[in-house]
Amino acid sequence: MRAAVVRTFxxxxxxxxxxAEVPEPAAxxxxxxxxxxxxxxxxxxxxxxxxxxxxxxxxxxWDVAGTVDAVGVASAWNVGDEVVALDYGMVKPLxxxxxxxxxxxxxxxxxPVTVDAVHAAGLPLNALTAAQALDLLEPAxxxxxxxxxxxxxxxxxxxxxxxxxxxSVTALARETDEExxxxxxxxxxISAGFTSGDLAPAGFDAVLDAAVLGETxxxxxxxxxxxVGVIPQAQPAPARGVRTAAVEVSADGARLAELVxxxxxxxxxxxxxxxxxxxxxxxxxxxxxxGGVRGRLVLVP
Length: 301
Prior knowledge:
Elements: E1 2-6, E2 15-19, E3 29-39, H1 41-48, E4 58-59, E5 63-71, E6 82-86, E7 100-104, E8 108-110, H2 117-120, H3 124-135, E9 144-148, H4 153-165, E10 168-173, H5 178-184, E11 188-191, E12 204-209, H6 215-218, E13 221-229, E14 243-246, H7 253-264, E15 272-277, H8 281-290, E16 296-300
Parallel strand pairs: 9-10, 9-12, 10-11, 12-13, 13-14, 15-16
Antiparallel strand pairs: 1-2, 1-4, 3-5, 3-7, 3-16, 5-6, 6-8
C-alpha cells in the first residue's frame, strides 16, 4: 500500500509517499480502508522533528474516515462498517495518511450519516481535543469563556460545544471571521487585531487558548479562574489563583460517537478547505505552511 511518511526532518519537501506492507489487525484492533484523512498542525510538527524519532521512518496522519476492512479477535466492529477514528501517536512507522490503517477497536466510532468521508475526516482529532479541553473547565450556565483562535479547527468546535454547555462564549478571531464565529454560537467577539490594552485583563472565568497565546491569554482570566491550553505540558505557570492546564488528546471511540451524533444533529460544523490525492501529500503540507487555511486540508488515497 501507499503511505505518506518522513525519513528525514524538514519542510514539506521531506514528505514522501512510499510503498509499505498492509498492516494486519491484532486482538482488539481493526483495519480501516482509508477513504479520507485530514492534515493537521501536529503532522507539520512530526515532519519537522518536533517530537523526535530521528533515524526512523515516521508515518503521518491522525484522522481517518473509511470502511472497516479486517478485524482482530474480540473486536466490536464488522467488516464493511463505515467509521471514523483517531490514530493517536506522535512517532509511529505508519499513520492514517495511507491506504490502510490499524487502530484500537476502542478508538472507532460509526461515521456520520449526514456528511461524506472527506468532511468526516476532519472530526476526530480536533473535535476530541476541543471536547476534552472543555472537560478541564467547569461549565455552568452563564459562565464566561474566551476561546482564542475561535475560527480555527479546534477553536471552532470549542465555541460550538461550549455554547451548547451553557458558557457565555467570547470568540477571539480575525475581524473577517466575526460573522462565522458568531454563527457557531459566540455571544461576543474580539478581533485578533486588537492591542493588549483593548481587552481588560482578568475578565473571564475561563480561557481556552486554541491560538496558543500563553501568558497573554492567561492575563485575561479572572483571579481564581481557569486557563486551558491545547499543547500538552506547555501551559503557563499558575498565577493569581488561576488554575492552568493543557489537554492531551486521547483516542476515545465512545466520546467520538457523541461528537458524530452532534454532527448528524447539525450542532457541529465540519469544514473542508481543499482535498489532495495522497500522492500530493507534500503539496498539502506546503499549502498548510502558507497559512490562512479555513477548514481542513484532506488527503484522499
